[in-house]
Amino acid sequence: MSLLSLRGLTKAYPGVVANSDVSFDIAPGEVHALLGENGAGKSTLVKTIFGLVRPDAGEMTLSGRPYTPARPGDARAAGVAMVFQHFSLFEAMSVAENIALGMEAAQAGRDLPARIRSVSAEYGLPLDPDRLVGDLSVGERQRVEIVRCLLQEPRLLIMDEPTSVLTPQEVEVLFATLRKLSAEGVAILYISHKLEEIRSLCDRATILRGGRVVGSCVPAQETAKSLAEAMIGSALARPVAKSHAVGGIVLELAGLALPSPDPFGTSLRDVSLSLHKGEILGIGGVAGNGQEELQAALSGERRVAPGMIRLRGQEIGALGPNRRRALGLCTAPEERLGHAAAPEMTLTENALLTGLTRERLANGGFVKWRATASFAEAIVRRFDVRTPGVDHAARALSGGNLQKFVVGREVLQKPDVLVVNQPTWGVDAAAAAAIRAALVTLAAGGAAVIVISQDLDELMEISDRLAVLAGGRLSAPRPAASLGIDEIGLMMGGSTVKDAGETHAPA
Amino acid sequence: MLRLEARREPSRAMLLLTPVLAVALTVLFGGALFAALGKDPVAAMRVIFVDPLFDPYSRSELMVKGAPLALIAIGLSLGFRAGIWNIGAEGQFIMGAVAASAVALAFYDVQGLWLLPLMLVAGTAAGAGWAMIPAVLKTRFGANEILVSLMLVYVAEQFLIAMVSGPLRDPQGFNFPLSRSFHDSAVLPVLMEYTRVHVGVLVTLLVVIAAQVLMSRHIFGFRIRLSGEAPRAARFAGVDRAHVTWACMGLSGAAAGLAGMFEVAGPAQQLAPSLPVGYGFTAIIVAFLGRLSPPGIVLAAAIMALTYIGGETAQFALGIPAAANETFRGMLLFFLLGLDILVRYRLVPKRREART
Question: A298 in a domain, yes or no?
Fold first, then answer.
C-alpha cells in the first residue's frame, strides 16, 4: 500500500507546461528519488505536494485518502514536511527561536530546547538550540531545517537538493540520518541531479524530463551513465578540448586580505595567486567561504591595498570597477538579478552597465544608445539568448538566458582576465554547456579565466588548475588532471572544520 | 474576490493610466469630503478644476504657481529615481529666498543688470548648501536623509522669521516682520503684460528640458536610475553611492533654492514670513504624479497649480476650509502611491477553492 500516490498531475504556467500528467507512488519507508535537469518540473511537482502550487488537473491521495493541501500548513498537518534548498532562517536568532517560528504555535512549547536536543541526538544531527544561526555553518543550518521537520514527526519528508551546499563528509552524515528515518517508516522524496548520490541512497527513482515522467527505475541497478542519458535524453554539446599553450603571468594576488563588514560574513585572509595567460583556474569550495568577497575584491566593488592585486604588473587594488575594466579585468557576479543585471532595466541598458568603458558607449558623457543597442544585440545573437528583443526588461528573461547574457556581455568585451562566479548556477544543461564552451574559447584566445563554482564536476571539466576556498583562505592551486574528487572534498571539508570557529566568529 | 498576480514586466499602460485614475479617485473622494462638510461637491469641483481654466488671469496664475512646483519637483525627481529621499525642499526653498533677499537688500540703493544673476547664484547656492547638510550626514554617518531634511525645514522656517524680524526687517516698516519691497533691479522682468508671469517660468522650462536630456541621454542620468533600481548592480557598474547622493541632494536643493529666489524676486518682491506656502511639500506629490519624468512633472505641476488657484477661490466663494484643500492634495498622493501596485501586479478573480 502506498503512502502518497500521484495521478495525472498537470500544471501549466503562461508559455510553459511545468508538469504534464505526472503519476507515481511512494511507499512508507521508501527513499524515492525525483531526478531531472533544471527546468524538468521537479520544483513545481514538490511545491504541489507541499501545498504551494495548485495543480490544474490530477489528484493526490495520502494513505488512501484524497489529499488536496491548499497551503503548506495543511501539508504539515497531514504529515508532509519539506527541507528547501534555500533556507528560511533568521541569522540573528537562536536555533530554538528559528525552529519555534516555523511551527504551529501549539507545538512550540517551553520544552522545545529539550526536544530539539533529544531529536538531534537521536538522529545523529548534533545541534545546540541556544546558538545563533548566524554562527552556524551551512551544513549546520540545514540541520536546523531538518530538525524543524522531524519535530513534527512527518510521514513524508521532501528534500530539495540537500547536498548542493554540503561537503562530501557532511553528505555522509546526512545520508545516515535519512537511512535511519527510512528504517523507521518515514518516506523520503529526494530531489537531486547528482547521480552517484541517488545510486547509493535511493530505493527507487522517477525521472522527469520536460514536465513528464519519462522513466522509473531502481537506481542501484543502473549506472550513472544510463541515469544521465535517461535524464538528459540527448547528447550534450561538450566544451572544446584544452589544447592551447599557457603563457606568462597576467594577474597576481599577493596576501589579499579583506575584512567582512557583515558579522556573519567571511573575511578573506592572505589569498595569493598567480594567473597565467590562456589558463582557466577553477576555485571550488562550499558556498559562504569567501566566494562573494573574492569576486567583489577582484571586480573593484570592494577596494584593497594597491599592491594586493596586480594586473600585468600594475597595482590595481585601489581602483574602481570601471578603471579595472579599462585595463582588461572583467567580472560576472553570481547573483544575476540585482547584481550582474538591473532587473527592471532593458537588455540594452544592462549592456551599458559594464560595457560602457571597453565598448566606448558614451561620447562626452552622452550615451550612444544606438551603439549600445547593437552591442546588446550582438550578445543576444552570439550567445543565443532567447528574448523577443533587447528593449525587454532583464527580469523577463529565464535564468539560463539571462546568465548567457551576463557572461556573454563580459566575453564579448574581450577581457584579458575574466572572473566568473557560479557561471552555470540554476542554468539548464544546454545553456551551461554553451557558457562553459565560451569560457574555454576565451581562454584559448589567450585570456586568463577564473571560474568560481560549487559544482565540482564543472570545475574538473574546464579547469587547468584548481584551488579551493575554505574559511576565506585559498589553497595552493594544483593541476586539475592530477586531482580526484575525493581529494578536493577533503581540501574543502578539512579546512572548513579546522577554521570553523574563527570563520564564523563575529568581527 | 480579487487577488494580485505579479506581472512579468511592469505595465506601460498602467504606468500612464494610474495617475489619471488617482486624479479621478481624488475627485470622487474629495467630493465626498466636501459633501460631508455640507458643501455642494459638484460646485466645489467646478470651482477648483474648471473655472480657473476659463479665466485669463487664472490661466496666467497657473504658470506663476506651476513653475515653482515643476522646478522643485524636477530636482526632487532626480533623487527619487536614485532612491534618495529629499523631503526638505520646503526648507531649501526658504533658504534660497532668504539668501536672494539678503543680496537684493544689501544692494538696495544700487542699480544694475548684474544684481538678478547675483541673487540667482546666492539663492541656488543657499538651497544646495542647505540640502548638502542631510547629504553629508547620510554619507558620513548613515543618518536618514528623510528625517534630517524634513527637520531642517522647521529650522529654515525659524531662520526666515528671525531674518525678517531682525537684520532684513524694513527700517520704515513699523516693526512689522517684513523686508523692504525690492527695487526694480532686484525684480524679475514680467513676460506678459498685466500678469505676474516672470522670466523664472522660462528658466523653469529650460531646466525641464535639461533634466529630460540628462535622464534619457547622459550617463549620469543612467547612473542615477541604476542606483535607484538596483543598488548592488550600480556598485558593480562602478557607481559611487556617495557621489550620487551628493549630486542628487545638491541638485534638488539648488532647484528648490532657485524656485525660492524666483518666488521672492517675482510674485512677492519682498521677504515675508508668509512666503512659503508649501510648494516644497506639494512638489513631492507633483514628482510622483508626473511619474518622475520631466514631461509628466510639467503636466502634474499644472494640475496641482489648478488645485491651489481653484482651492483659494473655493475658500472664499464656497467657504471650504484651507485644511480641506490640504487633505485634498494629500488624498491625491495617497491614491497615487496605492494604485502604483497595479503597475507591477494585475488583479485577477480569485478562484473559489483557493479560499477553502
Answer: yes
